[in-house]
């Protein structure tokens, strides 16, 4: 179980922070294609952890893809300026992403 959770957390940190530092972070704010690319890479990066935890199917994949897209799209539209790691906007954003992952264990 720990390996699965660490895999999910690692995938999340890699795609929601490290890969967005420059190009992808700017691209997802300017373009729906960039946001789709980001959400797809995020969903693919946490999927191995869900597979390890035996909590993965196409419905979960689509749910996570759409929820991450909607959370980030709303954040970009409501708060278009760049935010630091510890700002309320970013903390709420990350909380909602973690809730969406947790919901896959409850709903599916």
From TrEMBL:
The chain crosses the membrane at residues 39-66. Pfam families: DUF3307 (PF11750). InterPro entries: Phage_phiKZ_Orf197 (IPR021737). It comes from the Bacteria. Keywords: Membrane, Transmembrane, Transmembrane helix. This is DUF3307 domain-containing protein.
């Amino acid at each position: 179980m720990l390996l699965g959770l660490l895999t999910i957390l690692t995938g999340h940190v890699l795609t929601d922070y490290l890969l967005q530092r420059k190009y992808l972070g700017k691209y997802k704010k300017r373009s729906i294609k960039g946001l789709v690319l980001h959400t797809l890479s995020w969903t693919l990066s946490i999927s191995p952890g869900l597979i390890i935890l035996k909590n993965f199917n196409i419905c979960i994949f689509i749910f996570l893809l759409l929820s991450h897209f909607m959370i980030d799209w709303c954040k970009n539209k409501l708060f278009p300026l760049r935010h630091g790691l510890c700002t309320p906007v970013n903390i709420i954003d990350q909380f909602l992403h973690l809730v969406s992952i947790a919901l896959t264990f409850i709903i599916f």
